[in-house]
């Protein structure tokens, strides 16, 4: 038996053995891990689980984040990105304006556009289709990972089309994958308290289910660190795990550490480093059917990202170029990172950097 991880605590030792036997962790196991302060055991166990799945490889992508509009009909309590139409700083870019922006900021090697934005009801669904079409025509070699499940639900409402029809329209003009945003915490009670007036829990899951049925591989997230309980977080993971059992369409799970600027969201301070690392490690342990857990350096910083690579994370995200949503909410991290810095960061953790495409095909291994 591998004796790398040992704990004096009986319940912890049972969890260690369960993971080793490849048995699934339960809601009670997950909550116990969150309540434990034994970060080293949890981190080491997650590291073991990750090494079994991915070896020493840590993935990243050369990508660029784009935001067509920040006008939004919703008022999620934690959001500092949204604006009302006509408010100072509100914008809605045409395809041409976006291409102008991309031309100014793109760097060689970008192979993915990550596209999200507000739910702007002042433009029709066709606007969102045309946005994708314009980018796809100009940059056919760049993969378009666009829109959250909440945006797809919004498009369905303004167009009268079903989720399937909305997705098919977008796929016709170049959509290749959905982003993971809009999940927040998958709890109706949480959504009510945080005024998440967009896709509810079942709608979020249904959009991803539909996308997977259409052959799209998608991302999924969890925005943690405000009013939710540890139990809420584990239940969130279990709902994702159940859907993954059904469709196998999620490529990666991304824990997003809540940024603190908005007092109305009930956030008193940033998540501690301890909480961030524990969440990454617990995600790795609970989500045994998702290949990758991503450490999102925009929200937890590059140094903690590096440490998390030895506690369960196998994806260090990408270059991004200029992030806006978390920075509007008070992120203190860089808005992007160079390929060289990402490689340095991954190698510094004793791991092998692998540049990937959107679908985790390996482009280059930096041994
Ligand atoms: S989180 Fe998204 S849906 Fe909610 S207010 Fe912000 S932009 Fe709108």
Total number of beta strands = 11
**Which strands sit side by side, in order, in the main sheet?**
9-1-10-11
Strand content: 5-15%
Low-confidence stretches: none
The CATH architecture: Alpha-Beta Barrel
CATH superfamily: Aldolase class I
- Going by helix content, strand content and strand pairing, the class is alpha/beta
Supply the number of helical segments: 15
Helix content: 40-55%
Shape: globular
Ligand set = iron/sulfur cluster
Calculate the mean pLDDT score and round it: 92
What about the largest sheet?
4 strands, mixed
How far the N terminus sits from the C terminus, by CA atoms, comes to 30 Å
What is the count of structural domains? Answer: 1
Pattern of helices and strands: HHHEEHEHEHHEHHEHEHEHHEHHEE
Quote the CATH topology. Answer: TIM Barrel
Q: Could you name the CATH class?
A: Alpha Beta
Radius of gyration: 20 Å
Account of the protein in words:
43% of the residues lie in helices and 14% in strands. Helix 2 crosses helix 10, helix 6 crosses helix 9 and helix 9 runs parallel beside helix 10. It is of the alpha/beta class and 367 residues long. The protein is built from 15 helices and 11 strands. The strands form 3 sheets. A 4-stranded mixed beta sheet has the order 9-1-10-11, covered by helices on one side. Strands 2-3-4-5 form a 4-stranded parallel beta sheet. Strands 6-7-8 form a 3-stranded parallel beta sheet. Strand 3, helix 5 and strand 4 form a beta-alpha-beta unit. It starts with 9 loop residues before the first helix and ends with a strand. The protein has one domain: TIM Barrel (Alpha-Beta Barrel). The site of iron/sulfur cluster has 11 residues, from loops.
């Amino acid at each position: 038996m591998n004796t790398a991880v040992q704990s004096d605590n009986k319940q912890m030792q049972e969890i260690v053995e369960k993971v080793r036997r490849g048995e699934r962790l339960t809601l009670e196991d997950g909550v116990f891990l969150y309540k434990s302060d034994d970060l080293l055991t949890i981190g080491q166990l997650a590291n073991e689980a990750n090494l079994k799945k991915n070896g020493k490889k840590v993935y990243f992508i050369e990508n660029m984040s784009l935001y067509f509009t920040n006008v939004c009909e919703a008022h999620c309590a934690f959001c500092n990105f949204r604006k009302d139409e006509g408010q100072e700083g509100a914008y809605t870019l045409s395809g041409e304006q976006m291409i102008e922006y991309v031309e100014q900021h793109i760097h060689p090697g970008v192979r993915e556009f990550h596209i999200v934005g507000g739910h702007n009801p002042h433009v029709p669904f066709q606007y969102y289709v045309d946005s994708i079409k314009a980018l796809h025509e100009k940059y056919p070699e760049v993969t378009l990972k666009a829109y959250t499940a909440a945006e797809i639900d919004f498009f369905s409402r303004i167009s009268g089309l079903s989720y399937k029809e909305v997705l098919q329209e977008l796929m016709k003009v170049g959509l290749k994958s959905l982003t993971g945003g809009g999940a927040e915490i998958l709890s109706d009670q949480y959504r009510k308290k945080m005024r998440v007036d967009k896709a509810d829990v079942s709608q979020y899951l249904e959009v991803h289910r539909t996308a997977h049925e259409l052959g799209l591989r998608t991302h999924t997230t969890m925005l943690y660190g405000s009013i939710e309980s540890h139990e809420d977080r584990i239940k969130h993971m279990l709902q994702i795990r159940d859907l993954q059992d059904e469709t196998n369409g999620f490529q990666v799970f991304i824990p997003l550490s809540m940024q603190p600027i908005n007092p109305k969201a009930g956030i008193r301070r940033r998540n501690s480093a301890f909480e961030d690392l524990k969440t990454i490690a617990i995600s790795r342990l609970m989500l045994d059917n998702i290949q990758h857990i991503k450490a999102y350096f925009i929200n937890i910083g590059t140094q903690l990202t590096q440490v998390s690579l030895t506690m369960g994370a196998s994806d260090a995200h990408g270059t991004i170029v200029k992030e806006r949503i978390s920075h509007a909410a008070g992120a203190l991290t860089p808005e992007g990172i160079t390929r060289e810095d990402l490689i340095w960061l991954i190698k510094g953790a004793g791991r092998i950097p692998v540049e990937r495409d959107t679908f985790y095909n390996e482009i280059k291994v930096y041994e």
